[in-house]
Amino acid sequence: MTAPTDMISLEQAQELILSRVAKLDTETVPLLDAMGRVAAVDLASDMNVSPFAHAAMDGFAMHREDLLEASDENPVELDVIAEVPAGGVFEGAIGHGQCVRIMTGAALPADADAVEKYEVVGIVSGDGKTGSRVSFSSCPKERANIRETGEEAKAGEVVVSAGERIGDAGVGFLASCGVLEVPVYRRPRVAIIPIGSELVEPPAIPGPGHIRNSNGYAIAACVRNAGGIADMHPIVPDTLEALSAAVTKAVADHDFVITTGGASNGDYDFIKPVVEELGELLMTTVNMRPGKAQTFGLVEGVPVFGLPGNPAAAYMGFQLIIRKGLRAMQGYSAFEHPHVWAHISQGRKKKDSRRIFLRATLTRGDDGQLTVTPASNQSSGLFGVIQKSNCVAIMPEGFEPIATGDLIECILLDVPEEVVL
Q1: Do the beta carbons of residue 101 and residue 90 sit within 8 Å?
Q2: Burial class (CB in 10 A: 0-12, 13-18, 19+), 35
Q3: Which end of the chain is more exposed for a tag (fewer CB within 10 A), N or C?
Q4: Which domain holds residue 369?
Q5: Which secondary-structure segment (H or E) carries 282?
Q6: Alpha helix (H) ranges present in 5-95?
Q7: Does residue 417 belong to any structural domain of this protein?
Q8: Residue 204 forms beta bridges with which residues?
Q9: Nearest CA to 261 among 307, 297, 216?
Q10: DSSP β-ladder status, 199-200 and 59-62
Q11: Nearest 5°: CA angle at 292, between 289 and 296?
Q12: Residue-level pLDDT, tens digit, the chain, 421 residues
């Protein structure tokens, strides 16, 4: 069993956070607000969808047996006796030798058993509407171009299962099924506590020795992107007492607490002793670069995660570890961003045995081959490089160099976890 001070692998860190969070309670939201969230219960249709058989395209409805002998050499002619627009109903009878012009979505006449699309029907006389005579050069298949009653869903049938993410098309599907209120897992309320006596809030112009609080804004944006509710707290100075008070206050009314800065082993880094003093310290370092210093524990049962102060290190810690926990709390079952393999544009030596995540850009050549180009500046103190990157390229643990053209694994952090490539 590892001690909290032992360096652990990224996979162990991910498993640790997933083991210490649980799905939140549920809330019922209007259908549009359920988009992108996870259904907490099975959702069933209140009727057949569609409630009636209807034409799948503009055309002519008829008795199929009238056209059994139809061919290019021997076309069969029928009289058009009526028109049925979308929203209309033809309640008469279709006699043999007759047909009805019908629009997409219109209810199928009771005694029609096929629809032939308009484009392949010839006009013998008239304009194709009521009173015209039209010709058919083939016999459609039985029930051709007809959408049947209950084709998409039957009354009482479960159309979205508990645990299923509701997409934008799902919103339309649920609307057609009469589901306008949806029980979903609650979004976690996340406290974000920037740590550092050197920090000032934008738009203040920093004086000597000070910098703007960019980490707080970036992590708040990450929380929102992960589906959480970001609650930015005031900057906390570098004292044990101030940080202890801020964490104690935050865990009282939040589902998750994230601090930025103060996660290393300097004289003014206090998140580790604060978590250990107030609760249970579970993790302090992860075998990754950037982002070695990652503190995780529980205070009053609430997950508290201390991110490093360097922007890239904080960002990678969130994306690769915290994000999974926040998604698990919302009932999601997919936790991995898509991975692809690409040829690296330029070889790289390795002076650090940790797993290294290079901010990089993927491109696809005319031959379809993916190439990944790491940013020239890999400083962990930069946000701009991440903004201009579209992936991170992974250099595995150890000191093995990578040669130009080698295949290297890349994570597409801007592609949703549900996407399969």
Answers
A1: no
A2: middle
A3: N
A4: 339-411
A5: strand 280-286
A6: 10-19
A7: no
A8: none
A9: 307
A10: unpaired
A11: 140
A12: 678 889 999 999 999 999 999 999 999 999 999 999 999 999 999 999 999 999 999 999 999 999 999 999 999 999 999 999 999 999 999 999 999 999 999 999 999 999 999 999 999 999 999 999 999 999 999 999 999 999 999 999 999 999 999 999 999 999 999 999 999 999 999 999 999 999 999 999 999 999 999 999 999 999 999 999 999 999 999 999 999 999 999 999 999 999 999 888 887 789 999 999 999 999 999 999 999 999 999 999 999 999 999 999 999 999 999 999 999 999 999 999 999 999 999 999 999 999 999 999 999 999 999 999 999 999 999 999 999 999 999 999 999 999 999 999 999 999 999 999 8
**Token code pair at residue 200:** 């000032």
CA distances from 30 to 34, 165, 180, 183, 226 (A): 7, 15, 6, 9, 20
| CATH number of the domain where residue 277 is located | 3.40.980.10
Judgement on whether residues 322 and 196 belong to the same structural domain of the protein: yes
| Neighbouring residues of 387: CB distance < 8 A, sequence distance ≥ 6 | none
Count of positions (residues) in the chain: 421
| Angle value at C-alpha 52, between 49 and 57, nearest 5 degrees | 95
- Do 220 and 356 fall into the same domain? no
Asked if residue 389 has a cis previous peptide bond (ω within 30° of 0), the answer is no
- Integer Cα distance of 356 and 393 in angstroms: 8
Determine the residue type at 421: L
- The whole-angstrom separation of Cα 90 and Cα 55 is 13
Answer yes or no: are the C-beta atoms of 59 and 122 closer than 8 Å: no
Could you tell me which residues come within 8 angstroms of residue 416 by beta carbon, excluding any fewer than 6 positions away? 334, 337
